Amino acid sequence: MNLLAVDTSAEGCSAAVLHQGNVHARFALAPRGHTRLLMPMVRELLAECELVPSGLDAVAFACGPGSFTGLRIATGVAQGLAYGLDVPVIPISSLAAVAVQMIESGKIPEGDGIAVAFDARMGEVYWGCFGNTGGLPSLVDKERVCLPEDVSLPIGLNAWSGAGSGWALRERMPAAVTSHIIRLDTGMVPHAADVVRLAEQAWHQGLQVPAAAARPMYLRDEITWKKLPGR
């Protein structure tokens, strides 16, 4: 199958194509360059894979949580391509995409957990806890936005690692959480290369949706999604 994935949910701008079992990707740290960089990346990747857009089976995107502006860009690109090509869309959690990176670092054994935290501004964090299940992240508890003081770790996993920009606020997190973290990477951001791997799994699970149903996941719906024109 041929999958295209895009991500502009954080500081990074990236695109990736899964073609003949291989992942081809582009990534740039460009917080203000998403609109300028994303479509050229897509065109370069399709040319590299010798694919025409009509050869794609689906379009995936990091649906959030993350930057309001960034998620609008990724959602618009994914929807526009999917409408034009008449293919489904696969929304993928940005938090799960970072959990994949931690697992693929080789430092997260099977049965261990990854607590991913993004800086949500307004003194809060986006928080998601995942277990390493067969080399892929499985959500252990629902993703949420909360104060750093209110984060928690689910029971039942062997050991915990942390990832994401939200861990810069770890001094405000409960000792019951921080004392269980055995490794930490605050610099990880979502990559489309990880989004496309999760999208392949989601495709086989039948989790694709029509283009019209693709929408960003903002955990703060009351001040974000309702602002989108036409919704």
Q: What value does the average pLDDT take? A: 94
> Roughly what percent helix?
25-40%
Give the SSE string: EEEHEHEHEEEEEHEH
The multimeric state of the shown protein is: single chain
Topology, number of strands: 11
Q: Report the sheet-strand fraction.
A: 25-35%
Structural class: alpha/beta
Structure description:
This protein has 231 residues and is of the alpha/beta class. Helices cover 26% and strands 28% of the residues. The chain contains five helices and eleven strands. It has helices at 34-48, 68-85, 94-104, 175-178, 192-204, and strands at residues 3-7, 12-19, 22-29, 58-64, 89-93, 113-119, 125-133, 136-139, 144-146, 160-163, 181-185. Strands 6, 7, 8, 9, 10 and 11 form a six-stranded mixed sheet that branches. Helix 3 packs across helix 5 (192-204).
Summary?
This protein has 231 residues and is α/β, with parallel strands linked by helices. It has helices spanning 34-48, 68-85, 94-104, 175-178, 192-204; strands at 3-7, 12-19, 22-29, 58-64, 89-93, 113-119, 125-133, 136-139, 144-146, 160-163, 181-185.
